[in-house]
Amino acid sequence: MSEPTPVELLTPANGVELAAREKLMLLANGQRFTAVIHTLAELDVAGQLTAGPRSVREIAEGVGCQATQLYRLLRFAVLIGLFQETEPEVFALTELAEGLRVDLPDNVRDAVLLDGSERFNRAFTGLGHSVRTGKPGFDHVHGMSFWEDLERDAEALHTFDAAMTGISRRLGRIYLERHDFGRPARIADIGGGRGYFLASLLERYPEATGVLFDRPSVVAEAHGLLRERSVADRIDVVGGDFFTDELPTGCDTYVLKTVLHDWPDDAAESILRRIRAAVGDSGARLLILEQVVAPLNAWDPAKFLDIDMMVIMGGRERNLQEWRRLLAATGFRLAGEPATGEWTVLECLAG
């Protein structure tokens, strides 16, 4: 069965088929969906319903808001399958709403809070600037880069890193299921955030050790997580900038997970060249854990994420030809043929 298109996803919960113009207007007013989902996630309404359906007044008391206004949001959310009104003014979770439960390990609440934040919403008013100039709309709207903004705002940094850790939880399982990482001895996770994925690799390979490399403000948050995962004694935590600081050497496996899509080609080439220098003649592998954009009209979520990369960070999702060109320019080659249209592993060798 093929994946539904975005327009098909907008079919109301009652199955009534909308006219083409109605679907177009729904798509054009997508900010409504963003605002409602973000607000319900921020209030943690899903957390109020884990034990079963509750009245809107009980939910409102639990989250600290007006029952009448909350009912209006929930009534809207029902239209898109997010929550269900089981009887008048009584609501329950749906499969979609389960993704907002903070007690579930595969929840996406932090990512929803990031994507629906005022910073992201304002940045998308600069989409036209990005298309015309090739530069991030975020910089144009906010007067600084996304990364500079994170360094200036501790709350924004926490939201971003929490979202990235959540993504690591979900993607980590996918990568470990789909790819044979061989028998690594020492793994360098470059731009590895708080170390969630590196910890998962070391749990799978108990004889291996690792190096976690990311911005000092990020890896400062890693120690607690690594202790909790019982791998802190096997990981060297290094704070630095992968554009300017020396990268770890002496590793047989280098990992770049959802890093290069944050950057335009010139910056991505700089990162890869520095890793190539760290690899030297050791024969170490580079594993790039990202997406390879599917060709032509094929459904591919990467084509959605690519717009975020353009506007927020100035990066991009890449198709196979673009990956091959980027790797060849930096002294790497693909060791096999990666899958397209999904999160995949590009296994690279020097030369």
What order do the strands of the largest sheet run in, or round the barrel if closed?
6-5-4-7-8-10-9
| Helical content band | 40-55%
What number is the mean pLDDT?
A: 93
- Backbone shape: globular
Give the helix tally: 18
Main β sheet profile: 7 strands, mixed
Distance between the termini: 41 Å
Please indicate the percent range of residues in DSSP E strands (runs of 2 or more). 5-15%
Computed Rg:
22 Å
Main structural class:
alpha/beta
Order of helices and strands: HHHEHHEEHHHHHHHEHEHHEEHEHHEE
In total, the number of strands is: 10
Q: pLDDT under 50 segments (min length 5)? A: none
How is the topology of this model organized?
Elements: H1 6-9, H2 20-28, H3 31-43, E1 54-55, H4 56-63, H5 67-79, E2 84-87, E3 90-92, H6 95-98, H7 109-115, H8 118-123, H9 127-133, H10 137-142, H11 146-152, H12 154-178, E4 186-190, H13 196-204, E5 209-214, H14 216-219, H15 222-228, E6 235-239, E7 253-257, H16 265-279, E8 285-291, H17 302-313, H18 320-328, E9 332-334, E10 343-350
Parallel strand pairs: 4-5, 4-7, 5-6, 7-8
Antiparallel strand pairs: 1-3, 2-3, 8-10, 9-10
Primary descriptors:
10 strands; 351 residues; single chain; alpha/beta; three-stranded antiparallel sheet
